[in-house]
């Protein structure tokens, strides 16, 4: 990833720590935790690639997993180490490196891999596939990986309330019907928006079997203002909506049109690889 992306996360480390506390982002948070609980192995070694300030890594450590944190941003990684230490937890390792350089990790040493962010910023398709193949390489046979993509279709929907002025140009509407790469002047930093079929294809080209996929925001996608209003005005309604959304994130009628696409994939056990 470019220096632009590194600088963005270095300067937004604290903001990234608090981002998932936002009433709307809580939907993404709870959906992701639910998928982790459902699909990750019950124990073992997890590599959190693109760990940011360590929010998910902390959850895993509290569940007694052994966790390696891997991130592009030295500031994010330092904050993660600080917060983990404050909680009396201990990670296996902290690695400051670009996700395109996963070859620094040994093969077949992890029971699970999280890749919940780096693919947002890799604009070259072959580089994304190489990252996925390296995630496959570092997993033990039978291991589970969780990948996250920014979904252009979900961003289109969110834009109706969040940046509708840009839709004065109808081309800005139709461009979200396909994958696209944006520079730092068009997006929050350099970023890549995929679409579901393309993302699923890349995971399979990386060697994985897709187990399931989800839309993190489920039926609440694009409703930031309304979700936040319920949070402020009627916490019971808010809690019920967020709970239901997290429980239905894998539902086909919702998952293709959310901002964050979550793909759960498996490296086949060796016996199945031989039969294939």
From TrEMBL:
**PANTHER family recorded for this chain?**
MALONYL-[ACYL-CARRIER PROTEIN] O-METHYLTRANSFERASE (PTHR43464:SF94), METHYLTRANSFERASE (PTHR43464)
Instruction: Tell me the organism.
Output: Paenibacillus vini
Pfam family example for this protein? Answer: Methyltransf_25
Q: What is this protein called?
A: Methyltransferase domain-containing protein
Q: Write down the InterPro entries for this protein, in alphabetical order.
A: Methyltransf_25, SAM-dependent_MTases_sf
Question: What are the Methyltransferase domain coordinates in residue numbering?
Answer: 46-143
